[in-house]
């Protein structure tokens, strides 16, 4: 279950470092499990909930209860998400995503778990990514369980809402654009083409549980890892923090690259307080791992 995002770092957390050498050493050994959060996508133009330009102060994520019980909430969500999807569709993998993909190609990783729903790890070339919170690329019907492509739904929403192009105040990591009720207006939501039921993005909303099989898959990855490398996550929500705690309890080293303090700092051997793209690029160069000049456009 994804709880609220509120967390204030206590004053006695261990300080971060600006030395990325421990990260390079862990990768050189191999068997590294990457756990990524919203911070790895900020350099692709998708803002984090925290840190510089974070959206937490102005944005309350959609909850599962609101979405399933309120037609008004669904209208607001789909209007905002439809607009946000256009931005997500234009986003490109950045140096951080490309570095993770390069580490994987060179056999340095045991797996990748991402808390993000933007698909940028896969667009950069990473294989076998476990999407802890799902993906905005897919839509599921809550009535009949049919899955469909988000791009198909986007086309249907365009047809149902011709000329819908308000200017958003911002875009959030969950793909939700900041729109006023006046901008949402009478946005028309379309039903499932199979049964006429309610459509939902295949993502885990706040108040909704991550599927147990997916959690166990992640736990198995943690059990098999030589170390866990957290990239761009404050680890505020338990859905990601539990794997860091699991690793720590098993004696598996946890390393974090995140400019701000995280809820997992007490469980980590180090936190590198540097920008992700620059840090991972430097580590790749240190290891002689080429980033191959980028990746094809997403979608």
Features:
9 strands; about 300 residues; alpha/beta; elongated; disordered C terminus; three-stranded antiparallel sheet; six-stranded parallel sheet
Detailed description of the structure:
By secondary structure, the protein is α/β, with parallel strands linked by helices. 34% of the residues lie in helices and 14% in strands. It is built from ten helices and nine strands. The protein has helices at residues 21-29, 64-69, 71-90, 95-105, 120-124, 150-160, 181-184, 212-223, 238-249, 276-287, and strands at 32-36, 109-114, 130-131, 134-141, 147-149, 199-203, 227-231, 254-257, 270-272. The strands form two sheets. It has a six-stranded parallel β-sheet with strand order 3-2-1-7-8-9, sandwiched between helices. Strands 5-4-6 form a three-stranded antiparallel β-sheet. Helix 4 packs parallel to helix 10 and helix 8 runs parallel beside helix 9. It is elongated. The two termini are 29 Å apart. 47% of the residues are buried. The model is unreliable at 50-58 and 293-299 (pLDDT under 50).
Strand fraction equals 5-15%
| Overall pLDDT level | 88
Number of distinct helices: 10
Content-based structural category: alpha/beta
Low-confidence stretches: 50-58, 293-299
From the spread of the alpha carbons, the general shape counts as elongated
């Amino acid at each position: 279950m994804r709880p609220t995002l509120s967390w204030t770092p206590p004053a006695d957390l261990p300080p971060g470092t600006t030395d990325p050498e421990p990260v390079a050493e862990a990768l050189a050994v191999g068997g590294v499990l990457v756990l990524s959060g919203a911070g790895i996508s900020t350099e692709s133009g998708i803002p984090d909930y925290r840190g510089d330009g974070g959206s937490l102060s102005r944005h309350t994520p959609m909850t599962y209860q609101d979405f399933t019980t309120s037609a008004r909430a669904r209208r607001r969500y789909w209007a905002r998400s439809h607009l946000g999807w256009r931005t997500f569709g234009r986003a490109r993998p950045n140096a951080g995503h490309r570095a993770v993909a390069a580490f994987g190609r060179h056999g340095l990783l045991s797996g990748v778990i991402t808390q993000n729903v933007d698909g940028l790890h896969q667009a950069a070339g990473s294989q076998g990514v476990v999407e802890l919170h799902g993906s905005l690329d897919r839509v599921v019907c809550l009535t009949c369980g049919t899955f469909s492509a988000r791009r198909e739904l986007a086309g249907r929403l365009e047809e149902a809402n011709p000329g819908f192009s308000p200017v958003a105040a911002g875009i959030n990591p969950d793909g939700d654009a900041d729109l006023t009720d006046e901008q949402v207006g009478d946005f028309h939501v379309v039903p499932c083409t199979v049964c006429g039921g309610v459509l939902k993005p295949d993502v885990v909303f706040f108040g909704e549980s991550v599927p147990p099989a997916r959690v166990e898959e992640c736990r198995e990855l943690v059990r098999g890892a030589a170390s866990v490398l957290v990239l761009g996550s404050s680890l505020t929500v338990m859905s990601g923090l539990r794997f860091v705690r699991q690793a720590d309890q098993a004696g598996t080293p946890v390393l974090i690259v995140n400019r701000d303090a995280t809820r997992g700092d007490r469980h980590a051997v180090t936190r590198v307080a540097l920008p992700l793209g620059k840090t991972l690029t430097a580590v790749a160069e240190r290891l002689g791992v080429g980033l191959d000049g980028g990746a094809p456009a997403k979608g």
